[in-house]
Recover the amino acids of this structure.
C-alpha cells in the first residue's frame, strides 16, 4: 500500500510551481508592501485552469479529470511563494465557486460560473459579521421578501475577494424569517456587486495577507430578484457548514505551502550564513529546528492530502468533517510554529522585510483563525470522539 | 494542416551537468526536461492550430528512454501525438547524425510545417533546423521572432542587431523560432490528464531504414577530445572606498577590463 499523489498530480505540481516561481514569486514582496491586489496575475491563474479544477466541463472546468486533490496541490504551490495569492485562489474556489456549484440552479450556474471558472471574475462569501464569526447562527443581516424581491440589510466583515475590480458577486447569508423552534431561519442569497445599496468598504489594514482583497460590506436596502436565493430557503446554516468543511482542507494545503517555504528558506540560509567561521547549519541548535520543520511539513502534507482524498472518494460528511478539522488544526498551528522557527534561523535578518520569512511570519497567524479557528477545530474533533464538550 | 514539432530532452539546466566516460552528456543519470527553447516551438504550433480549421500537431524526439518525458510535456501543453525514436546506436550522434534520424522520422509524417526551437539548451548548436530542412528539401525560415500563417503562405520575422526582415515562403516549410516568438503556456491539469490518453509511437533505426553505421559516436563528424569543469569562481577584487576615491578606482578597473 502506498500513500502518494498520482504522477499526473506530481506533473501538475511541477507546472504550478514553474508558474508560481516565474509569475508570482518575483513580485510577491512588492504586492505585499503596496497592499496591491494583482488582477492580471489572478487572470493568468485562471488561464492555467486553477479556478476550474473542481468544476464541470460545461462551465469551462476540468470536469471528470479534475478533483479536490489537484486544487490542494495548486493552493500549496501558490502558497509556497505567496500566501496572499494562495488565499485568493482558495477563497475564489472554496468560498466563491463551490457554493454556487453545489447549491445553484442551472440558471444561476450558467449565469455566474463560466467567468468565475475562467478567473475573469471573482465571488466572495459573505458569512462573517461584526457580531458573528464562529457563532454564525447569530447572523443579524436580514432579508425580507417584498413584491418578488429580497430586500437585504446588514453588515458583513472580513470578506475575501469581495471588492476587487473583477468581483462579480457575493453570496450573503441572511435571516429570512424564524423557524418553528424560534431560532432564526438562515438562507443564502446571491448579490451581484453592482446592485444599488451594496458597498464594499475600504479594504482592511491587516497584519498579513496584504495582497489579498478583503473588505467589510454594507448592505442597505439591497434588492435582488427572488430567484437569487441560493439553495433551499432556511438551509443557509447547513450549506455554509458543508462549505467550510471543504474550505478547511484547502486552508490546510495553504499552510503546507507556508511550512514548505519555511523549510526551503531555512535550509538554504543555514548553509550560506556563517558565524564563528562555520555555516550556522553546523550548530545543532539551528539544524535540529530545521529537522523539525521537515517533520512538520511531511505530517501536515499527509493529513491534508488524506483529507482531500477522502473528499474525492466521496467519504461521508462526518468522516470528512473530522479529517478536515484534524488537517486544518495541525497544518495551520505547525505553519505558525514553522514561521517562528524560520525567522529565528534568519536571526536579525528574519525581522527585516527584505527577506521573505518575515512576510510568511505575518501571513501565518490568520491560518489559525480563518474558516474556523483552532478552537473550533478542537471542538469538532472532541465532538467526533464522543466527548460532551460545549 | 499537419505540423511536426521537433523537440529535445536535455539535462535540467539548473542541475549540475554530468558527462559520461565517452565525453557525451549524461542524459540518463540526471533529471531531464523538455529543452526550454523547444517550448517556444510547441507554443507556436499550438497558436497556429488555434487559428486553423483542421490542424494536427505531432511531436518528434530522438533520444534514450527518458526522452519520452519531452514528448509528454509537449502533449500536456496540447500537442496531439508523439513519435519517439529510440535506439542505442544513436548514442553519441552529432548534429549531422541527429538531423538524419529526425529527417527520416519527419519525412514519414508528410507535414505541411516543421517547427523547431532555435537551438537546444545543452548543445546550443543551432544547426539542426537548417540541416533538417536541407535533408527534407524544405524552405527554411530560421530564428523567427514572429510567425504568421495565411493559407499556404508563411511569413516570418527575423530580428538582428542591424535590422528586422520579413521572409515569406509557401508551405511546406521548416521554421525555427527564438525565445522572443511567444510565451509558452504552462500545462493545465486538464492538459496533463488528456496527455495520458494521447498516442506515442516508438520507432527504431530499423523502422526508419537507417543503417546504424550512419549514426552514433563513430559516424560523428566531430569528436569531443577533452573537457574540464568550469573553474570555481575566484574571490574577486575588493575596491576600497573609504578614502573617497573608490569610484575612480572602480572606473579604472572596468576600463582595464574593457567593460567601458
Amino acid at each position: 500500500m502506498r500513500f502518494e499523489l498520482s504522477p499526473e498530480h506530481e506533473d501538475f505540481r511541477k507546472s504550478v510551481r514553474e508558474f508560481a516561481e516565474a509569475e508570482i514569486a518575483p513580485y510577491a514582496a512588492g504586492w505585499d508592501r503596496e497592499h496591491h491586489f494583482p488582477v492580471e496575475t489572478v487572470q493568468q491563474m485562471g488561464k492555467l485552469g486553477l479556478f476550474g479544477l473542481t468544476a464541470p466541463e460545461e462551465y469551462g472546468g476540468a470536469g471528470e479529470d479534475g478533483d479536490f486533490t489537484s486544487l490542494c496541490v495548486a493552493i500549496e504551490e501558490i502558497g509556497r511563494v505567496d500566501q496572499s495569492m494562495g488565499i485568493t485562489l482558495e477563497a475564489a474556489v472554496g468560498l466563491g465557486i463551490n457554493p454556487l456549484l453545489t447549491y445553484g440552479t442551472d440558471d444561476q450556474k450558467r449565469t455566474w460560473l463560466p467567468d468565475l471558472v475562467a478567473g475573469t471574475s471573482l465571488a466572495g462569501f459573505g458569512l462573517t459579521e461584526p457580531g458573528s464569526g464562529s457563532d454564525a447562527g447569530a447572523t443579524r443581516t436580514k432579508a425580507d421578501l417584498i413584491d418578488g424581491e429580497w430586500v437585504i440589510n446588514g453588515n458583513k466583515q472580513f470578506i475575501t475577494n469581495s471588492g476587487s475590480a473583477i468581483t462579480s458577486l457575493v453570496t450573503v447569508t441572511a435571516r429570512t424569517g424564524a423557524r418553528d423552534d424560534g431560532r432564526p431561519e438562515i438562507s443564502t442569497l446571491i448579490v451581484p456587486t453592482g446592485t444599488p445599496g451594496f458597498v464594499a468598504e475600504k479594504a482592511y489594514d491587516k497584519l498579513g495577507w496584504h495582497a489579498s482583497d478583503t473588505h467589510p460590506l454594507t448592505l442597505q436596502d439591497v434588492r435582488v430578484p427572488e430567484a437569487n436565493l441560493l439553495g433551499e430557503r432556511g438551509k443557509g446554516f447547513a450549506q455554509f457548514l458543508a462549505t467550510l468543511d471543504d474550505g478547511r482542507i484547502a486552508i490546510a494545503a495553504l499552510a503546507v505551502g507556508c511550512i514548505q517555504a519555511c523549510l526551503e528558506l531555512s535550509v538554504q540560509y543555514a548553509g550560506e550564513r556563517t558565524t564563528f567561521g562555520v555555516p550556522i547549519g553546523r550548530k545543532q541548535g539551528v539544524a535540529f529546528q530545521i529537522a523539525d520543520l521537515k517533520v512538520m511539513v511531511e505530517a501536515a502534507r499527509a493529513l491534508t492530502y488524506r483529507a482531500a482524498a477522502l473528499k474525492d472518494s466521496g467519504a461521508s460528511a462526518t468522516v470528512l468533517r473530522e479529517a478536515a478539522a484534524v488537517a486544518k488544526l495541525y497544518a495551520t498551528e505547525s505553519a505558525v510554529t514553522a514561521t517562528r522557527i524560520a525567522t529565528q534561523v534568519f536571526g536579525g535578518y528574519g525581522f527585516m522585510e527584505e527577506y521573505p520569512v518575515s512576510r510568511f511570519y505575518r501571513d501565518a497567524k490568520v491560518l489559525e483563525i480563518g474558516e474556523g479557528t483552532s478552537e473550533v477545530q478542537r471542538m469538532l474533533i472532541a465532538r467526533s470522539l464522543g466527548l460532551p464538550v460545549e | 494542416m499537419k505540423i511536426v514539432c521537433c523537440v529535445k530532452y536535455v539535462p535540467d539546466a539548473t542541475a549540475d551537468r554530468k558527462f559520461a566516460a565517452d565525453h557525451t552528456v549524461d542524459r540518463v543519470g540526471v533529471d531531464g526536461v523538455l529543452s526550454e527553447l523547444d517550448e517556444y516551438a510547441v507554443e507556436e504550433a499550438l497558436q497556429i492550430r488555434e487559428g486553423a480549421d483542421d490542424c494536427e500537431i505531432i511531436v518528434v524526439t530522438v533520444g534514450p528512454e527518458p526522452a519520452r518525458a519531452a514528448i509528454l510535456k509537449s502533449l500536456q501543453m496540447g500537442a496531439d501525438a508523439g513519435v519517439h525514436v529510440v535506439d542505442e546506436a544513436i548514442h553519441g550522434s552529432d548534429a549531422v547524425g541527429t538531423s538524419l534520424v529526425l529527417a527520416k522520422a519527419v519525412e514519414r509524417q508528410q507535414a505541411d510545417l516543421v517547427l523547431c526551437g532555435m537551438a537546444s539548451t545543452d548543445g546550443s548548436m543551432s544547426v539542426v533546423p537548417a540541416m533538417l530542412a536541407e535533408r527534407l528539401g524544405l524552405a527554411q525560415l530560421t530564428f523567427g521572432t514572429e510567425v504568421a500563417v495565411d493559407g499556404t503562405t508563411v511569413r516570418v520575422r527575423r530580428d538582428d542587431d542591424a535590422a528586422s526582415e520579413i521572409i515569406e515562403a509557401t508551405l511546406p516549410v521548416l521554421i525555427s523560432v527564438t525565445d522572443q516568438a511567444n510565451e509558452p503556456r504552462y500545462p493545465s491539469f486538464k492538459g496533463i490528464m488528456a496527455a495520458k490518453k494521447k498516442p506515442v509511437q516508438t520507432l527504431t533505426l530499423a523502422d526508419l531504414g537507417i543503417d546504424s553505421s550512419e549514426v552514433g559516436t563513430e559516424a560523428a563528424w566531430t569528436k569531443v577530445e577533452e573537457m574540464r569543469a568550469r573553474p570555481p569562481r575566484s574571490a574577486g577584487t575588493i575596491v576600497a572606498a573609504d578614502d573617497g576615491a573608490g569610484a575612480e578606482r572602480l572606473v579604472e578597473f572596468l576600463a582595464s577590463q574593457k567593460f567601458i
